[in-house]
Amino acid sequence: MTTVHERVDTFHDNDQKPVGYGRMLRKEDPRFLRGRGRYVDDVQLPGMLHLAILRSPVAHARIVSIDTSAAEASPGVKAVVTGAMLAQQNLAWMPTLSNDVQAVLATDKVRFQGQEVAFVVAEDRYAARDALELIDVEYDVLDPVIDARRALAPDAPLIRDDLDGKTNNHCFDWETGDEAATEAVFARADVVVSQDLVYPRVHPAPMETCGAVADYDAVDGKLRLWSTTQAPHAHRTLYAIVAGLPEHKIQVISPDIGGGFGNKVPIYPGYVCAIVASIVTGKPVKWMEDRSENLISTGFARDYIMRGEIAATRDGRILGIRTNVLADHGAFNGTAAPVKYPAGFFGVFTGSYDIEAAYCKMTAVYTNKAPGGVAYACSFRITEAVYLVERIVDCLADELGMDPAELRLKNFIQPEQFPYTTKTGWVYDSGNYEPTMRLAMEMAGYDELRREQAEKRARGELMGIGIAFFTEAVGAGPRKDMDILGLGMADGCELRVHPTGKAVVRLSVQSQGQGHETTFAQIVAEEIGIPPADIEVLHGDTDNTPFGLGTYGSRSTPVSGAAAALVARKVRDKARIIASGMLEVSVADLEWEKGAFRVAGDPGRSVTIQDIALRAHGAGDLPEGIEGGLEAQICYNPSNLTYPHGAYICVVDIDPGTAQVTVRRFIAVDDCGTRINPMIIEGQVHGGLTDGVGMALMEMIAFDEDGNCLGASLMDYLIPTSLEVPDWETGFTVTPSPHHPIGAKGVGESATVGSPPAIVNAVVDALKPFGVRHADMPLTPSRVWDAMRGQARPP
Ligand code: MCN
Ligand code: CUN
């Protein structure tokens, strides 16, 4: 079923690009390259005020008193607001995306370092920041819970005493799979391997931090909010519910966004503070975080402490996988995941293998750290799931003395088994794993690499080869199974073709850098034959786009991409009827050829889509029952997720003197079904692989025992640059999704999901001569050094 075909032309002059899929330069880039992007911080409104937030310096404390008088008297200050004041309006707490509540401004206690305590509104940013220093807060410092492993200890201090009847730090329990069946396969297995793994807390750290400009007009009662959000429609409805305003009185505008990576899915207290400030002052108010605020207070990612167990026969047939997870959700459960999936899509932890039984038991706890959890290109926690399965498969290979590529090839789900229902109930739509794996091995020169490694080992040099194979589940809904706070995960889309044959497509998803203005124009172009240059993509403004759930979990192509293709087909169907009138033949006699309808058997007689658009709006008669205009709208509810897959191979060298890891080569073969724009896909993969190097080798949000965040600046929280990454070697196979109208699957998170285990597997492989079987991320020189000396430091 795998076919590899692609139009490889690169159109340097996009006007020459006739229609459809293929490499095409991005329509948004002339704007970005000239510095003409328009971000939230570029919004300047007459009389605009500036808001700054006072944050807690400690992780856990009771607020004894707050004195704002000096701040109020500070030059340029217009208002100082505390939690107590918000409480009078019943606005001190807000709902989170996970049916928990979170303090907008702390009233009773602070529960993590960096939590919002008060805000100042002033004439400029500097006056607002200066006045923060004058607010006097008296804290009664409490013991913090920093290590999730201690959260449920009987003597652990209670963090969420705001919740009725709560007596401990338990957040939720979740399980999936069949415990007894898994027990049974483990009991009869020849080999059982188990391994403790930590996927540390990391942060998406987008280039643009979070922020908002709120402008409430007291006369017409309309709130305009420019905000850094990946989900403008969902945010608008939540504001409507909280504020008791109808949606049409709230306009959420998400303009150009400088990277989201899941960091811009949650609703943050800062957005709500900006809205309150605009209502209180009667003026537009801007709030923009600085880098430290972003790193310490906004949605982190991961923080899963996992035990993985794998059972197999002596000859390497995997029978079962079992895992126990302790999930650290921070002080408030602000995870952005579909309601029925508190652990996101972690349930796909059985990976790409045809096994007999699986079971997962998870406990989530509250700790005195910032909330978050689902972010950083994670496909709703598939990062954690793939890391778990791909690490323990490598541990098993080690135990069996088997090559890790051979072990994977031996256990793959076979092409004829799709659609394949996993032992935890996920229905993988399509896949053909072996060709993808073989292509990666061929590109890497796998056998040759193993020979090189053997020679180097004999000389005492440390070289490692790591493999990871992943299957993701992206494109949430369907709406019957998936919703965010009751909002079903389906996407609207509208297409209007104007009289001159130019078109506008309106999306409910919102790009943060993924190139939607280009690829969605290409999808529509492929279906109706109007060149992409003539198709304008509108998104990110709730007043001008249809309702839909937004961009995350790589759902834009699987859901809105399908909507765009189907809405274009709907327009094409109408165009066919109009064409039949123009050509005076029945619709059955018309053949569609990109951009025109021709009379079958008489190719000289045809009308282009542009001719039809003019007729649709023009003076002549239209066929019986056909209204004027050429436009359509739909709401697409996906029947299933799409399941992209990929094979990654990483080659590392380790300096035995300094324990520094160098990623020498990285081969990534991705299969995302039908490829719309291969250049954009490559960009997505390059970015994700770079993130993977960061997570595997450098990045970690750590805390000291008092709960001080040790990664609060980019001096401490290291992110990779071009110096730390190799020239990526990418390849692809194409296994279309059978249920998606154009066969496309998502790709935006694949590389972040697949690369960390490949890199860790490579490092552990390099360290085999030292008897190392596992070491936790980030594999910094000191951690690698410790591993070489047989000492593991607590992560
Ligand atoms: N694409 C394609 N052919 C396919 C699949 C995708 O050409 N078969 C193109 C799409 O048309 C789109 C891009 O690749 O232009 C990514 O598509 P998709 O996989 O649908 O992902 P989304 O557009 O929904 O993007 C979300 C995803 C997520 S969840 C995170 S996190 C992440 C990621 O995208 N954040 C990003 N990549 C990012 N890239 C940038 N530059 N900035 C971010 O914030
Ligand atoms: Cu998990 S990060 Mo993306 O789904 O926005």
Automatic annotation (TrEMBL):
Gene3D superfamilies the UniProt entry points to: Aldehyde oxidase/xanthine dehydrogenase, a/b hammerhead, Aldehyde oxidase/xanthine dehydrogenase, molybdopterin binding domain
Keywords carried by this UniProt record: Molybdenum, Oxidoreductase
Catalytic activity, EC: 1.2.7.4
Keyword Transferase: no
NCBIfam families in alphabetical order: CO_dehy_Mo_lg
Name of the featured protein: Carbon-monoxide dehydrogenase large subunit
One of the Pfam families matching this protein, by short name: Ald_Xan_dh_C
Gene Ontology terms for molecular function: anaerobic carbon-monoxide dehydrogenase activity
Domain Aldehyde oxidase/xanthine dehydrogenase a/b hammerhead: 34-143
